[in-house]
Amino acid sequence: MAECGRVVRRTSNHTMDKSIILPPDEIFRNLENAKRFAIDIGGSLTKLAYYSTVQHKVAKVRSFDHTAKEARGDKLYEIAVQEEVTARLHFIKFENAYIETCLDFIKDHLVNTETKVIKATGGGAHKFKDLIEKKLGLKVDKEDEMTCLIKGCNFVLRNIPMKLLFTLSMRTQSSGFRTHSQISSLTSWSTLDQVFPLSRLRALLTKTKRFDELLQLASKGQHTNVDMLVKDIYGGSYSTLGLTGDLIASSFGKSATADKEFSKEDMAKSLLHMISNDIGQLVYFGGFFIRGHPVTMHTITYSINYFTKGEVQALFLRHEGYLGAIGAFLKGAEEDNPNQYSWEENYAGSSGLMSVSPDMSPMQRARSGTFDMLEMDRKERQLVKLPLLQDPSSYIPDTVDLTEDALAREYWLFCFEDALDGVVKRAVASQPDMPEAQERAEKFRQKYRHKLQTLRHQPFAYGSLTVRSLLDTREHCLNEFNFPDPYSKIKQKENDLALKYYLKAVKSLDQLEWTERQFALVRGVLAGNVFDWGAKAVSDVLESDPEFGFEEAKRQLEERPWLVDCYDQWFERLKGPPHRCALFFVDNSGVDIILGVMPFVRELLSRGTEVVLASNSAPALNDVTNGELQILTERIAAMDPVIQDGLRDERLMLVQSGSSSPCLDLSRLDKVLATVVRERKTDLVIIEGMGRAIHTNYYAMLSCESLKMAVIKNSWLADRLGGKLFSVVFKYEVPAGKLSHDCSASSPL
């Protein structure tokens, strides 16, 4: 959450002193490249939306001509960092009291825009129409509020499906948040920041001027000192009507009978309960009235649960306050058809869902909620669901929700903070010719550490907190400071080295009889997966022992029976007819892809199975990218006729996944990949690695056979699962209704 400088209010209810400091790099980011605006003005808060183009660095690889250079042992490919331009959506929330100064700031910093009209919605659009037109010189075009809300909600649900919805567990108010998957459309809605009676009652009863002040008071109050409960009337519960004794019978009821003064804190708590219960009969809740405030959400949850006898669930939307502005923006951008693209939240530029916790310092409380930001970047390729998901509506990528698992949350937050020094070191090393790299790396460190600290206090700040979201946030922060591929040099070195051993590895496998070879191939994939620079236990070994290689990794693997061991079922399946087509989501560069995956792929091709290799579209850790895989496969094909024939006959295809994460969300894959999977009648999906097969997709149910392979390279996780470092997960599953070789019952997760 961004903070502004010292604020001195004027007497006007919508202006403030011009001395306020609004740093454009923190709040109105990239304003000089803004193209289009929309605004949603509520009773107390304004939400601004604008579109900009952002210049950023990307890492590209280009193959060398090896006909002349191979003999001298030169590198396989070169790495180039290039500038690219992409589209970004910015959404900013601030109090109406700041609107005049913010409009002045926008006008002063706006450089190039062809925009002549600003779309506006919300109850305040009419009130501030003249001010907006005067300050920005744009014509205000008002849009229907409900239409904008629904349009905005559907857009965000489609593009941030797993991060948007959550419920509040009745077990606890502080940490019992459960996240939900997507909902196809919005059918019932309440804009809670439009509750005007609340503003008037707030001022009358508590003398507070800002909503945040009311929330802070309420966090210290006890509503039972003011409200009359059922037990105050009946001495206990009223069983005839099924009313418990702690149920509120009359809000502020005790104030009518007690001859005493009530504290502002108790009055504030009672007021929030009254408003929340009054509106607590809807389904979806939005607006900054809620804004991560557990008291309000808990009251609404209780009300919904009580009056529907548990049949209806209250769902809270993390980006609730922006939906009107998003909808208004989309109405104004229809000629550009933004829905033809996929968008992704940029965690580096989003402030997340904040709360006025009683643990915050007075200065933090005074400034909390002043400015909130949400940023979304346009993806270059359209993302769709994997056609092979058994039930797309119930698919949840992540295995563990850290908002619910406090022990796991504390460990992983510590783990990511502890790894920061290593990430900074590799980021700087990836750009040796750039003297300012050290300074940018330190800024990355500060930003990511701040994100981790925020998540310690507010685990639900970015929706569901998972290992995937922690990894993705780190990647976004690295890109923010122009480190598009910190592991590029490591990948290049390991790819060059592994290629030298490829022929020796496949010749050794070819000499084995069929039964022995099948196990050796699986063991090779697992050994290759050990080479993961994202795992500290492995990176420490690789840095301290440069001679650690493929054979050493094999010796590190646990002996059978493995932690999850479905190898016998897989082996029996191999005795049957070959699969039509296997989709293989690959993991790391170097030994993993070259000495582990490629021999396994070679065997599938030899059996008559077509293979689609899906790799990341953009860098993440030392994972192989599609660009790198194209070069590596061409080089391997020059040595191996099986791979060469597969490429020539298009029985081996290399397709980008659409992902730039060490994990995998099967509901957001490149549309081209989904088309290939469907056209090839894919009947086997192989997912490799901890990020893709353990942290995500461990419970993913597919409509075809699946194989999930990973080595546990984290001691804490291995211990929790009842294993040890380098324990093996080999999970083979067959959909219900087919000949079952499923051994998922042995799962420790």
UniProtKB/TrEMBL annotation:
It comes from the Eukaryota. GO terms for molecular function: ATP binding; hydrolase activity; metal ion binding; pantothenate kinase activity. One of its GO terms (cellular component) is nucleus. Keywords: ATP-binding, Coenzyme A biosynthesis, Hydrolase, Manganese, Metal-binding, Nickel, Nitration, Nucleotide-binding. One of its GO terms (biological process) is coenzyme A biosynthetic process. Pfam families: ARMT1-like_dom, Fumble. Residues 421-724 form the Damage-control phosphatase ARMT1-like metal-binding domain. The keyword Cell membrane does not apply. Phosphatase which shows a preference for 4'-phosphopantetheine and its oxidatively damaged forms (sulfonate or S-sulfonate), providing strong indirect evidence that the phosphatase activity pre-empts damage in the coenzyme A (CoA) pathway. Hydrolyzing excess 4'-phosphopantetheine could constitute a directed overflow mechanism to prevent its oxidation to the S-sulfonate, sulfonate, or other forms. Hydrolyzing 4'-phosphopantetheine sulfonate or S-sulfonate would forestall their conversion to inactive forms of CoA and acyl carrier protein. Its cofactor is Mn(2+); Ni(2+). This is 4'-phosphopantetheine phosphatase. Homodimer. Interacts with PKM. It catalyses: (R)-4'-phospho-S-sulfopantetheine + H2O = (R)-S-sulfopantetheine + phosphate.
